[in-house]
Amino acid sequence: ETGVTQSPTHLIKTRGQQVTxxxxxQSGHNTVSWYQxxxxxxxxxxxxxxxxxxxxxxxxxxxxxxxxxxxxxxELNVNALELDDSALYLCASSLAGGPLYGYTFxxxxxxxxx
Amino acid sequence: xxKTTQPPSMDCxxxxxxxxxxxxxxxSGNEYVYWYRQIHSQGPQYIIHGLKNNETNEMAxxxxxxxxxxxxxxxxxxxLRDTAVYYCIVRGPGxxxxxxTGTSLTVIP
Lengths: 114, 109
Known about the structure:
The complex is a heterodimer of chains A (114) and B (109). With 114 residues, chain A is mainly β. Helix content of chain A is 0%, strand content 50%.
C-alpha cells in the first residue's frame, strides 16, 4: 500500500502571489486533512475534505481553500500570500470520522514567502 | 484556551527512561489522548493512544490519570534516535485534532 505523497517538497513564493500544494491519499482512505505548522509551533488544522466537500475548518481566512478529487487526492490553494504563511504544510489521509491513529501523514511541503 | 499543555523542552540521558507529561483537563469523556512525535519537521509519527487505562506497545507506555485530566508518555530506554518533538493530542471541534506546542526532547549521550 502506498503512503501519502505531497508535492512539491519545497517552494518559494513572493508576497501577494498564489500557491497550490498537492496531496495524494493513501490507498483505501477517503478523507484528507490539511495542517499548517509554523516554525517552532505544533501543526494547526486548516480544513478537512470528504466526498469532495469541506468537512470542517479551523481558524483560517477564506484565502485558504481546497479541493478534493474523485480519486481522493487533494489540493490546498492559498491566495494573496503573506509573509506569515511561511510554514510546513502537512496533509493527512484517513477514513471519515476515524481516530487519529488511523491518519497517515505526508512529509509536508515547506513554503517560504518572501 | 489551550486543549493540551506540555513543558516546552526536556533532556534525558541515553538509556534512561524519559517521562513526558501532558495536561488535557478539557478532554471529553469518550475521546482518546494520542501521542505523536516529529523528527526534523517530517510528518508526525504515531506513538500510542489511550482512553482511560494505561497502555503499552513496543515504542512506549502511556499512563493516564484516573480523572483523565493528564497523562505521561514513558520511553523506557531512551536512545539518541528518540530526540524529537513529542505532541500530546486531543480531538477538537469540526474534525480537527489539537496538537499544541509539544515537548522538545533531547536525549544526551
